Amino acid sequence: MSSTPSLPPTRTRVAIVGAGPAGLTVANLLHAAGVDCVLLEAESREFIEQRPRAGFMEEWVVDALARHGLADRLLERAPTQGEFEFRFDGERHTVRTAELAGRRHFVYPQPLLVTDLVASYVDHAGGDARFGVREVRLHDIDGDRPAVSYTDPDTGDRHRIECDFIAGCDGARGVSREAIPADRALLTRHDHGVAWLALLAEAPPSADGVVFGIHERGFGAQMARSPQVTRYYLQVPPGEDAGNWSHRRIWDELHTRLGAAGAAPLTEGPLIERVVLDMHDYVVEPMAYGRVYLAGDSAHLVAPIAAKGMNLAIHDALLLGEALIAHYEGDDSGLDGYSQVCLRRVWQYLEFSQWLSYVLHGASSGDRFQAGTASARLRRLLGSESAAKAFAGLYLGEEADL
To answer: What is the DSSP letter of 263?
Structure first.
């Protein structure tokens, strides 16, 4: 903690910790409704606008953001996807999700959304956002006068912001969740037992939509990011060192795991990102304690297997922002039910992610029973219209009452 004397405290209604999609969505909603708020972020604005993240957005999320005037650039620029491929046993199998579910995915990488949300809150609306803050602490969160303190990165001064509520949107490694006493929140974890080597290639995609390759050597995937850049994934052992994977080894495995009759060959190019992601989940219950309300990865982490994380974060943020606005209009029902409503969707998405993980990783599990039952699940999905419709609805995300 800085030894510099603290400045006199200031006050706002809501202090928001973390400027990811969740925190920025809450900030935009509150500011537009005339609810005073301050947004604190440990990283610089430039960093959060460039931080690599996935970008599959469910249609209901885009619709909800659009109703709040937060999706103009997204709707102008984001391509949509309405089908994907499974590839296994040397064959291609297309699942036309848009036809089955009547909805689409929007492809809009998280850094672009963050850039839009920051511009809306800071540049257009004049919202109070403080980037690069240090030593953030939460105080008196179970009382009537909670506060957040931080150190100014330029002056070293210690600031204290007193508030009515704290929105903890600072992710898995943030301070918000840690401020909640361990005996007042249940943390449940699940490990999928696999890892993915996440890759970005400066190369055009060979398919317009997502390709899931199921192979005895391990899962592989291709996801178009732009006409010039493609996202790839390779299943690797947990704890694997990305440095063990040379350029040639990576492309050889991608060709093998994504190969199928009639498929366009992959176009190779420089690999500009190589990161190993262990596939695990966690959930915090409840998502609120005292005057702190958690949103996004502070409250739950969903492995990127089904591309649900950003969608859940924005769902939390929309509910929390609207509940806080309603509080200042005399209605506390939204805050009272916040955790329960959020967790219902969280558990639904976790179940779907686990189901899909079983299918994608069964062939390489080394377990004949798992491989056989995973194959049976996949063939039922491909052979039954009712099963395909149920899958498509979950894959594209259930509508939210927002």
So the answer is: P
